[in-house]
Design goal:
The structure holds two protein chains of two kinds. Chain A has five helices and no strands. By secondary structure, chain A is mainly α. Chain A folds into two domains: 63 residues; 37 residues. The longest helix of chain A is centred in the middle third of the chain and has 27 residues. By secondary structure, chain B is mainly alpha-helical. Chain B is elongated and about 60 Å long. The longest helix of chain B has 37 residues. The chains are: A mainly alpha, B mainly alpha.
Chain lengths: 134, 193
């Protein structure tokens, strides 16, 4: 097994990019992006970082077609797992929610109600659950 | 090795699906729980792991170029960084136990979302626990590789075990790259006091 030998500079550059990505994702988490974009942005950064690691640290860029196929398969099936699961769960409230698909209870969100909506929650239905469980 | 890593992707993928589902059901609890996590420790650990991936890649490269001493130094560095990660993780877990944030009879959390925050912490411990287990396995693999390098088992023509241990190590790094934003960075922008 005598694979491709990457120059050291490649590894240093990838390392630098990964560190920048980490700093970016932390910084982005403290910014309130509109349209609930925080989650997609965080995931985009993570996917980019993972791709860098796979291509350069794990040498897939210089690997055989078989290796690439297998790596692709992994993420293809991961995609099936997540897509099918969430196309089901996310669409469940669309047609069955009382009041139709635009009623507040049927809108699913990744980040929850904004800060303004939180006090209402605290005074409402959650009462009594916050005491310590037995 | 790659085939094994495919099964690992699905293993963590299943748990991430569970994570996503509960996050969609209890977004407020997810934000509350996430904001309890120590972002400094998590961030430092991310950097430590990325750095260990660099030293691992350099160890493989040294093996490719037949520099045995450099290989061993990089392997030891990688293991030390892995150990650093686990030590920091240990202190994070310790903090959770002291704050009663560990799911179970002694779980304590203020607020209406407490029962759901407990689910968040269950998912947190499941994901980070399994990840830490992978780190321990990776550490064990690297000690074997280090021993084999010491015994002159490898050459630029044959260094497959180092390469494969490296693949495993990088994979564990990738898992953490996803776990860090998913667990530590949920809805931080609404919680700045």
């Amino acid at each position: 097994m005598s694979g491709h030998i990457s120059p050291k500079s490649t590894y240093y550059a990838v390392f630098g990019a990964l560190m920048v990505g980490t700093a970016l994702t932390v910084a982005a988490a403290f910014v309130d992006f509109p349209f609930q974009m925080n989650f997609p942005i965080a995931m985009a950064i993570a996917v980019t970082k993972a791709t860098l690691v796979i291509l350069f640290f794990m040498h897939v860029k210089y690997g055989s077609k078989l290796t690439k196929l297998i790596v692709g398969t992994a993420f293809f099936f991961l995609g099936i797992l997540l897509t099918l699961t969430f196309s089901d769960y996310l669409s469940r409230g669309w047609f069955t929610a009382p009041g139709g698909s635009t009623s507040p209870g049927s809108i699913l969100s990744l980040t929850g109600p904004p800060a303004a909506g939180r006090p209402e929650l605290q005074g409402g239905q959650g009462e009594g659950q916050n005491t310590s469980p037995k | 090795m790659w085939l094994f890593l495919v099964t690992e992707v699905m293993f963590f993928g299943g748990m991430l699906a569970a994570y996503m589902l509960y996050r969609i059901w209890y977004p407020v609890a997810w934000a509350d729980g996430s904001n309890e996590l120590n972002i400094v420790m998590g961030g430092v650990n991310t950097a430590v792991l990325i750095f260990s991936s660099l030293t691992m890649a350099m160890a493989v490269r040294s093996a490719q170029t037949g520099r045995r001493n450099a290989t061993m130094i990089f392997l030891v560095l990688t293991m030390l960084l892995g150990l650093t990660f686990l030590v920091i993780k240990f202190f994070e877990y310790k903090e959770k136990f002291e704050l009663n944030h560990v799911p179970g009879p002694n779980f304590r959390f203020e607020g209406p979302e407490a029962p759901h925050v407990q689910i968040f912490f269950s998912v947190y411990f499941a994901l980070t626990g399994v990840h830490a287990l992978h780190m321990v396995i990776g550490f064990t693999l690297l000690s074997v590789i280090l021993w084999m390098t010491y015994k002159n088992r490898f050459s630029p023509e044959w260094y497959t075990p180092i390469e494969l241990a490296g693949l495993y190590w990088h994979f564990v790094d990738i898992v953490w790259i996803f776990l860090f934003p998913l667990l530590y960075l949920v809805d931080r922008s609404h919680h700045i006091v």
